[in-house]
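Hi support team,

I submitted a single chain yesterday and got back a structure, but I'm not sure I'm reading the token output correctly. Could someone confirm the output below corresponds to the sequence I sent? I've pasted both exactly as they appear in my results page.

Thanks,
R.
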Amino acid sequence: MPLPLAHTMIGLTTNEVLGRGSAPPDWKTVVFIVVLSNLPDLDIAAGLLVHGNGCAFHRGPTHSIAFALLAGALATNVSKLWPAIPRMNWIHSFLIILSHVISDLLFTKSPVSLFWPLETHWVDGVSGWGESLMPIFLEAYKDVWVLLICLLMMMLVRLAATVKERTRTDLGDYRFSEIGKDQRR
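Hi R., thanks for writing in. Yes, this is the structure output for that exact sequence:
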């Protein structure tokens, strides 16, 4: 099960792939990506606050495409209301939130409500405050492989962007030198 650190890295990697290796995001954008990539797990906090059980609402509507669509639209428009939040287009917001849902779908045994409201799945069991919070701090080592894969993907995206830029620059230099030859004749 990906924990918040893995969801964060997957969200940052999603942003990197969508940006195709452009300039690294500033710290406000990184914080915004952290929030968006962990947003579906608000259902754990809701379950803890309402029932004292982090599993009460987990993997329900917040782990769906519909939630990612709605939350992505909300995240895109919130920067208009609160300028301190960095601007992010809808598709970036949507895909960063959806990356959480997809990673839970792929890396966990319990189902997610991907097509909610047509299907709804809930996590069975009871998870109090301690059982819900302790894995975040004591079991993050389980996600090391996710972190390594994400770092590798980000490095490959940066490398591809660098190669593309150098190729474009070299072609530009070649065209410029060819123009110069034509003018000298």
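A quick pointer for reading it: The mean pLDDT is 87. Let us know if anything else looks off.

Best,
Support desk
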